[in-house]
Amino acid sequence: MAGETVILEVFIFVLMILGALFMLVAALGILRMPDVFTRMSCNAKSVTIGLGFLLFAFMLHFRELGVGSRALATIAFIALTIPVASHRIGRSAYLSGVSLWEGTIRDELGEALKGTREGPHKEDAGDEKR
Amino acid sequence: MRRGKREISIFSGKGLYGALVRLVAFSLLWAVLTQGGGGWIIGVPAVVLATFLSLGLHAPISWRWRPMGVLRFIPYFLWQSLRGGIDVSRRALHPKLPIDPAVVHHTLLLPPGPSQVFFANTINLLPGTLSADLHEGHLTIHMLDAGLEYVMELKRVEERVADLFGVELKRR
Q1: What is the mean pLDDT of residues B38-59?
Q2: Out of A32, A52, A94, whose CB is closest to B140?
Q3: Which structural domain, as residue segments, surrounds residue A47?
Q4: Is the residue at A119 inside a domain?
Q5: Chain B residues with CB inside 8 Å of A49's CB?
Q6: Which end of chain A is more exposed for a tag (fewer CB within 10 A), N or C?
Q7: What pLDDT does A7 receive?
């Protein structure tokens, strides 16, 4: 019985460390990534995974129905809302012509589609802004 | 994406059913958040308000997930999200910051409607992709690494989403 508890404790410990590491990566991504799209890309994934690990660790630690169901609901909401939020931010950045990082490869089709609808204003997205 | 307005009154049979489903779902959520009841003085108005708000924002339209599709999709989604997290961590922590971003366009094989929106949101958690714009079945995607074999990857995700919604993929 005691052995099982130790294994569980270690497992919870590992989950929490991993969760914290992914959250650290999210913060590092904000600092290191060069433009809004790469930052969003980095953040959406690492925050979701990081919070997932932390909440899963809470579930295992408390082992109560009330805590577990709430943690599960929180995981579900995070997995549902973070992708939507990052899509909205990415979309508004793209359509308002926020400059892409200089190393970004642009698809030719995007250039061809340009002007067929409002935005993306790629022609003035380059050097003038910022 | 702005969907065409579908006027379904909540007093019609279908509308009432949709409203009831949401009412029950929000009540269950309140019960979970408050650990099985309590606080219903605040809960009942909140649930009713949330139901009306959600109906106002998003009228009931007919779509459903297939139960078996959900069971197949969840582990796939979790695994891919984990891959996405690990991939992006490797890139963010690497001293040389190995990214090679690109903006690509992808024509969806999924039929127009909820499955397309769901797909656009799903890929935000998958390795290296961020959906930037969804317009008439064309998805603009920001890739963290242009070298990834994204066409095959996206096709696989589309197949999974089609399986989840029980819809057919268009043939090219």
Answers
A1: 87
A2: A94
A3: 2-95
A4: no
A5: 81-82, 84-85
A6: N
A7: 92
User: Are B89 and B124 members of one domain?
Assistant: yes
pLDDT, position B86: 92
What pLDDT, on the 0 to 100 scale, is given for residue B147? 72
Same domain, B108 and B141: yes
Q: What is the mean pLDDT of chain B?
A: 84
Would you call B103 and A70 a contact, using CB atoms and an 8 Å cutoff?
A: no
- What domain count does chain B have? 2
CB B132 within 8 A of CB B33: no
Residues B109 and B77 in one domain: yes
Residue from B108, B105, B106, B104 nearest B170 by CA: B108
Q: Going along chain B, which residue ranges are E strands?
A: 102-107, 129-135, 138-143
Q: Is residue A100 part of a domain?
A: no
What ipTM was reported for this prediction?
A: 0.78
What type of residue is A26? A
State whether B103 and B132 are in the same domain. Answer: yes
pLDDT score of B160 more than 70: yes
Q: How confident is the model at residue B10 (pLDDT cuts 50, 70, 90)?
A: low
- The pLDDT of residue A129: 37
pLDDT tens digits, A25-68: 999 999 999 889 999 989 999 999 999 999 999 999 998 888 89
Structure tokens at B45: 């108005």
- Residues within 8 A of B (CB atoms), A 73-102 only: 73, 79, 82-84, 86-87, 90-91, 93-95, 100-101
Q: Which residue of B has its CA nearest to A89?
A: B132
Domains: count for chain A: 1
Question: Which structure tokens are listed for B132?
Answer: 């930037």
* Residue B137 pLDDT: 86
Check whether residue B148 and residue B120 sit in a common domain. yes
Of the candidates B33, B81, B138, which has its C-beta nearest A49's C-beta? B81
The two structure tokens encoding residue B37? 């009841």
Q: Which domain holds residue B82?
A: 67-165
| Together in a domain, B52 and B134 | no
